Amino acid sequence: MEFKDNLPIYIQIMNLIKSSIASGEIRGGDKLPSVRELSKELKVNPNTIQRSYQELERENIVFTQRGMGTFVTEDQQMIKNLRSNMAKDVVHGFLMNMKKLGFDSNEIMDIVSEWIEKEEIK
User: Fold this and answer.
1) Angle between helices 9-23 and 46-58 (to 10 degrees)
2) pLDDT per residue of the chain (122 residues) written in tens, 0 to 9
3) If 0-12 CB within 10 Å is exposed, 13-18 middle and 19+ buried, where does residue 54 land?
4) Where are the alpha helices (H) located in 8-104, listed in sequence order?
């Protein structure tokens, strides 16, 4: 994983884990890699991974069982809300970029409709 300079690494790791949960790559109840394993894999300081896990726990997305590790919440509503919020962020970013390019709402709708039609044909 390549980290960007404009966002703290622990937040980028949080976003990576959240994306994996939202996409279903990591499911509710799954165990996350240990801090050491993920630290080694991503080549970051273990304290950075620990901070990511703590923040995810604060958001009730993961929980820690002493001596067992860190697990993804089994609360399906929480996972559904996470997925929905991530989708809203993606759409908001897309719309802001399109408006910066000078497109109005109708033009954006047309472009998106055309794109969806092309994708459905494939």
Assistant:
1) 60
2) 889 999 999 999 999 999 999 999 999 999 999 999 999 999 999 999 999 999 999 999 999 999 999 999 999 999 999 999 999 999 999 999 999 999 999 999 999 999 999 888 76
3) middle
4) 9-23, 35-42, 46-58, 76-100
Residues 6+ apart with CB under 8 A from 51: 10
Let me know: does 2 contact 42? Beta carbons within 8 Å.
no
| pTM, entire model | 0.84
CA dist 108 and 98 (Å) reads 7
Within a 10 A sphere around the Cβ of 117, how many other Cβ atoms?
9
Distance (Å, whole) CA 97 – CA 94: 5
